Amino acid sequence: MKSFLFDTNALIYWVNEGAEPHGDVSALIRKTVSENMPVFALASSLNDVYYAMRRHYSSEAAARESVRDIAELFDLVDLAGPFVFEALDSDEPDYEDGLIRAAAEALQVSAIVSYDRKAFRRSAVPRVTAAEALTKTIV
C-alpha cells in the first residue's frame, strides 16, 4: 500500500488556498483519504504551518484551524531521539529535512511529498511533488 510523508512546505500549500500547488496537494490528499492510504506529517511541522499561516496568510483563528485540519487527517510522527541524531548526522541541506528523511526512512513510506528540490537527493525514499505522486507509480 502506498504511503506518504508530507514535508512542511506541502502542508502549507494544502492549507493555503492561494498557493499554486494547492490544487495538486488537495487532490493527492483526497486520493489518500479515499483509498485509505497512510499519510504522515512530523508533529514539529505543525509549528511551522501555524507560523507561516498566521504571519503571512491568515488570521489567528484560521491558522489554528489549519493546524487542526492537519492534526485530524494526518498520522503525526513524534520526534524520538534517534530521529534527532540521524538528522544531525545527515547530509541533508538543513536540520528539518534531516528529520523528515529520518522519519520517512524509518516509516518506509513510498515517498516524501515535498517542493524542496535540493532535499532528499540521497534518501532511500524518493521525493515527489503532489502532481508527480498523482501521475507516477510510486512503489
Describe it:
The structure is a single chain. The chain has 139 residues and is of the alpha/beta class. Helices cover 54% and strands 11% of the residues. The chain contains 7 helices and 5 strands. The protein has a 5-stranded parallel beta sheet, sandwiched between helices. Helix 1 crosses helix 2 and helix 3 runs antiparallel to helix 4. The N and C termini lie close together (8 Å). The model has no long low-confidence stretch (mean pLDDT 91).
List keywords for this structure.
about 140 residues, 5-stranded parallel β-sheet, about 10% strand, alpha/beta, single chain, about 55% helix
Distance between the termini: 8 Å
The total of beta strands comes to 5
Q: What is the C-alpha radius of gyration, as a whole number of Å?
A: 14 Å
Helical stretch count?
7
Mean pLDDT: 91
- The secondary-structure class comes to alpha/beta
Taken as a percent bin, the fraction of beta residues is 5-15%
**Low-pLDDT ranges:** none
Q: Roughly what percent helix?
A: 40-55%
Element-by-element helix/strand order: EHHEHHEHHEEH
* Biggest sheet overview: 5 strands, parallel
Shape: globular
Strand order of the largest sheet: 3-2-1-4-5
